[in-house]
Write a structure and sequence with these properties.
By secondary structure, this protein is of the alpha/beta class. It contains 11 helices and 10 strands. It has a 7-stranded parallel β-sheet with strand order 3-2-1-4-5-6-9, with helices on both faces. It has a 3-stranded mixed β-sheet with strand order 7-8-10. The radius of gyration is 19 Å and the shape is globular. The two termini are 32 Å apart.
């Protein structure tokens, strides 16, 4: 089985790609920047492909059995921009249909379920929901993963130099998961996938903690440098969101993360794909 990965060089794409390779799959990386991908995966099969270009995708997907998509909307994107999970996904599905790809795996979102709750609406979640619909309507078997918060965000999107930044306080307890544990689950899902049957999995980590508890535990276990936790009032981001796409993104994602009433749903996932093992302390210490 040969799996094509799109989004392999990102924060979450790298560990998932590594787990697929370690699981013994033949993996082809479809990228725009070959040199960067080659630095990260020197032994991988790497080809050029652009989600804006149907012809390049059709060439890159020749001989591919499964696709794994790690796509995202950048914080700086505007609603009118080109989006990989919208027009890009449409091109990808068309190319997959042309060459006969047998399955599409897609990293979706759990918190996008907050759309419509408490009067909340956001174009980003509209696109993510539409992406799921497009994949399901493609006629290609699919494996869709709906994750809770990733531990990587504590050292990525929420890191600002020596600070871990949170906005507001929330009693909600997400089930933080490490991307390597998630990658193992993706590999297992592909291994047990049966032709003609689709897969949908809720992805949650080993324990539920508030965002502040997660950040505090991460900071205590991090060894590379001293970090501090900073909590910004949510109203400051609300004021600035009308002037900056990045701030607007930050306000919306924070509002949904702080208020989405996440509950444990990953029992069936653990039964089929294995229980995640990486704790916040283990994750931080390994960086």
């Amino acid at each position: 089985m040969t799996i094509a990965v799109l989004g392999s060089t990102g924060m979450l794409g790298q560990p998932v790609t590594n787990e697929l390779i370690q699981a013994g799959f033949s993996v082809r990386l479809i990228v725009r920047d070959v040199s960067r991908a080659r630095q990260l995966f020197p032994q991988a099969d790497i080809v050029t492909g652009d989600l804006r270009d149907l012809a390049s995708l059709t060439r890159a997907l020749q001989g591919i059995d499964f696709i794994y998509l790690n796509l995202s909307i950048r914080q700086t994107e505007k609603q009118t921009d080109f989006h990989t999970e919208q027009a890009g996904l449409t091109n990808l599905i068309q190319a997959a249909q042309i060459v006969g790809v047998r399955r599409i795996g897609y990293l979706s979102s759990l918190v996008m379920r907050y759309q419509g709750m408490n009067g909340f609406t956001w174009w980003v979640f509209t696109i993510k929901r539409e992406a799921v619909r497009l994949i399901k309507a493609s006629g290609i078997n699919y494996s869709i993963f709906y994750p809770s918060c990733f531990m990587e965000s504590l050292n990525g999107t929420q890191r600002l130099g020596p600070f871990v930044l949170l906005v507001g306080r929330s009693p909600v307890k997400p089930w933080y998961i490490a991307a390597h544990d998630y990658g193992k689950q993706v590999a297992r899902a592909f291994r047990i996938a049966t032709a003609g049957l689709n897969q949908e999995y809720t992805i949650q980590g080993p324990e539920a903690v508030t965002q502040h508890e997660a950040a505090s535990r991460f900071i205590a276990a991090y060894r590379k440098e001293k970090l501090s936790l900073v909590t910004a009032p949510s109203f400051l981001m609300s004021l600035g969101r009308h002037f900056s796409p990045q701030t607007d993104y930050g306000w919306h994602i924070t509002e949904s993360l702080n208020k989405y009433p996440e509950v444990f749903e990953a029992g069936p996932t653990w039964a089929e794909l294995g229980k995640p093992e990486i704790t916040l302390e283990r994750f931080a210490a390994a960086l």
